[in-house]
Amino acid sequence: MPSVTTFTTSFISPGALSSFIATAPTMRSEITSEQRSALAERFRQVSLPHHRRLDAWMVEQAAGQSSPFRWSPTTARRVLGNAALRLRFTQQLSPVVAMDEVIVDHLTRAATGYSRRGSLSSWLSELSTAQLALVTSDALNWSHALEEIARSIEESVEVADADAYYDVATARTTLRGRRDLIVATESTCTLIRVRSGAPGRTAGAGLRADLTIDAFSRPDGQVASQIIGVWPDAGLLLRVEGSMADLRAGARDLLRVANLQHTAYFQRALTS
Q1: Over the stretch 210-248, which tens digit does the pLDDT of each residue have?
Q2: Is there a contact between 164 and 214 (Cβ–Cβ < 8 Å)?
Q3: In sequence order, what are the residues at sequence separation of 6 or more whose Cβ sits closer than 8 angstroms to the Cβ of residue 6?
Q4: Per-residue pLDDT, 268
């Protein structure tokens, strides 16, 4: 009988996040080459004619129909806010100066032709001054919230350089795992994801998917000790430990999304 994931919840309070980090499991699992091959084989069985990208949000939505991705102040704020906070931590800049540096870098890439069509840089370059100010304000608020969370942690905190990406071999599938903060000690590694609003009933499965993708994306296959979701608006924390049982469950969730997409695609093909 498969193991059931244990989700640990807590209200945000002084020291709550540090307490979760201090009690992270010290025994860490590891992805093997055999497990990578098995995952690729399963994805190949439900591949599509075109390339696809799967992530935790799709797991939470059970691959439900959604509008095509488009940039907006809401979708851009995390990318911009995280980048600005990285600059704050590495170069000791003020919040506004750091955000200006990030925005100017994107606009420069667009102006010099180093950004592809549809990218964040390209989208920012097409905004009016007023629209750009709105995007900047939203990103500053996100960066401030992330900084407050980071500074509440007693251990050393790193702002993740990028999300985790794993290309499943010959399956036309890329897995994307989101991660905002990383707390690494001598014996543990904690991933932290910051979320808006309040956690839904599938939020734990989404965190588990992020944890799984992060593990597969690492060349050494090391599984993080845990992943913690933080919902500042709701004042809640949710933890998923990095056990092999949770990794298997996370992989099953991602495969279920792929299978639903595969079935829907060929049903449409048969009726068109």
Answers
A1: 999 999 999 999 999 999 999 999 999 999 999 999 999
A2: yes
A3: 241
A4: 84
Pair 184, 217: CB distance under 8 Å: no
Question: For the segment 104-121, what is each residue's pLDDT rounded down to a tens digit?
Answer: 999 999 999 998 999 999
Dihedral, 103, 124, 158, 228 alpha carbons, nearest 10: 150
In angstroms, the CA 185 to CA 152 distance is 16
Match 């991705």 to its residue by tokens: 69
Task: Identify any residues that bridge with 228 across adjacent strands, giving them in sequence order.
Answer: 192, 239
Does the predicted TM-score (pTM) go above 0.85?
Answer: yes
Whether 264 and 32 have beta carbons less than 8 Å apart is answered as: no
Task: Fill in the DSSP letter of residue 128.
Answer: -
Cβ-based burial of 27 (10 A; exposed 0-12, middle 13-18, buried ≥19): exposed
